Amino acid sequence: MRSDLSPSHPEAEVSDFVHFVVDALGAAGRIGMLAVGFALIFRITGHLHFAIGAIWTFCSYVMASLLEAGQSAIVGFLVALVVGWFLAAVSYAIYRRLSGEFTVVLASFGLFLAILGGQALLWGATAKGVDPSRLMAQGQLVDYGAGRVFVAWLDVSCLLGLAISAVILAWFFGRTGAGVQSTAVSENRDLARSMGVPIVRIELFAYMIGTAIAIASAALHVMAVGADTFTGPNITIPAIVVALGAGPVVVGTAVIAVLFGAMLSLAQLALGTEWVTIATYTALLALIFWKPAGLLRHDVIFPPRRGLRAGLRFLKAEGRAS
Amino acid sequence: MIDYLASIGALAASTAIAVMGLCLLTPFAGYITTAAAAFLAIGAYCFAAATTKFGLSPALAVPIAVAFCGIVSGLVGVVLSRLRGEIHLLATLAVQLAVIELLRRWREVTNGDAGLSSPRLWPAMSNSELFTVIAVSTVLLAAALHFWLRGPQGLILRAIRDDREVAEASGCRVLRESMLIATVAGALFGLAGVLMAMVAGFIEPKSFDLLYSFNLLLMAILAGANVVGAICAAMLLILLPEIVYSSLDLGGAQVAPMQNLIYGLILVALMMTRPRGIFPELRLKRPRRS
Description:
The structure holds two protein chains of two kinds.
Chain A: H1 10-45, H2 52-68, H3 73-97, H4 103-123, E1 139-143, E2 148-152, H5 153-175, H6 177-187, H7 189-194, H8 199-225, H9 231-245, H10 252-271, H11 276-290, H12 298-301, H13 305-321
Antiparallel strand pairs in A: 1-2
Helix pairs in contact in A: 1-5, 1-8, 1-9, 1-10, 2-3, 2-4, 2-8, 2-9, 3-8, 5-6, 5-8, 6-8, 9-10, 9-11
Chain B: H1 2-28, H2 36-52, H3 58-80, H4 85-105, H5 107-110, E1 116-117, H6 127-150, H7 152-162, H8 164-169, H9 174-200, E2 202-203, H10 210-223, H11 227-248, H12 252-273
Antiparallel strand pairs in B: 1-2
Helix pairs in contact in B: 1-6, 1-9, 1-10, 1-11, 2-3, 2-4, 2-9, 3-9, 10-11, 10-12
């Protein structure tokens, strides 16, 4: 995607910048949706549900098979969603029975292996294409004045999906009773239980919604390029980086996804495509050492409405007094 | 047939050395690591590159690869020992993925995805001779580790695993012990990597991927804090699939998925029933009365 113009040419600089922005947003959209699903589960239940990457892959093959069999995209998505929910419910039922340190994350590794093994046994290790006439258009060259840039529909739809899920989750956590209950479970589980919050229902809800967001991104991927075995596992690690980086703010995950996408694109510009993967893992290590609890605090991204109003009233009163 | 059995036996014995290293870190010291395959790869590539690219003799390249892997593992262990719980596990995951990507990209030394050929200790070494060398090394190492871990070192590792703060308060130098145990484990990984390279005769980054690391972790968890258990777990999980595949007559493309499915289900079942492994924890030597 980089320009063929000389780097000193002003148009080349504009072109590189536009490509950089488009690449960053595209990477953010692809990683962000899986990250939002993962973060939702991790923050509410405390489970490092590593197997979500394998569920992503399994469901993308389910949908691709149904499209291949002549079913509509809606039917394909709904069946993939049901299969994903079933796998998520099985995962949750297993995690709930576990006790002791590391057992959940090790069981999630086991589920990751088993689901990927099952997918390869059912559909083989090769990519599953979708009839080109049924795919979404691959993308479009957009003229922006100083040149043209290729915009892939997959990136646009993932970015839209990321924005929509972030907005809905922001509304849900900030404005609904169930959202407040979910926050209570994530912050102090025992206290929430003693206050009568239905823990199992809230946790199962987190699994269902988190899996649905992840499968929506898998469906978009299938509609754009088909199903393959490597994308799910490959975007799981960046999604974990984003979810950990966001801290205890599910909505902040979308913001961090955009920042992370920008970082990846910058690494691609500076180092070339081959070294981007290593940059991702180095970023994960750096993040773990620098801020193990995440970069954002709750009030940075989404201030509670009452708290904000009280703060504004206090500031006005202070101003009048002075 | 004997040649085939010898190569499978050699593979199982070299895997047992890797599992002993991982047992030191995971069931004994409580550091769950998913980077074992990366250190095996470092040992294997160090040996293969030293012999094929730099012309060293295999007998000289083996100790160099083992020492190099031990030093790298010790340094990584010191850096990561300040992390706890699942964050430590994620950091080892990042190390695993970064090392394998580095081996794929550093084509001048590793040949990238094309891989490197690896010689044996002497040119005409047969599979049976290799099996004998590896089996003897495995038994000697297991005996040495067994007696080392039955003594004070075993007690120190258990103290670090069970409660790090209490261990530190009791005068245990956690950082030094973590570095020591990571170095020993790294040396074992390096040796296992070298031996696997000799058995296969060819190495590529794909052979040491994350799924292989999960398989090693499964063997270590199955073994628990028991050196003999490490050998039994490696033998079981290397030899059992061979027997199953030959009896079911599975096609080549179905072997790896079936293995992942079975190993994954075993790991889940272990976590639900015996999270500390199926073998009993190594008993410490009773201290002499003074």
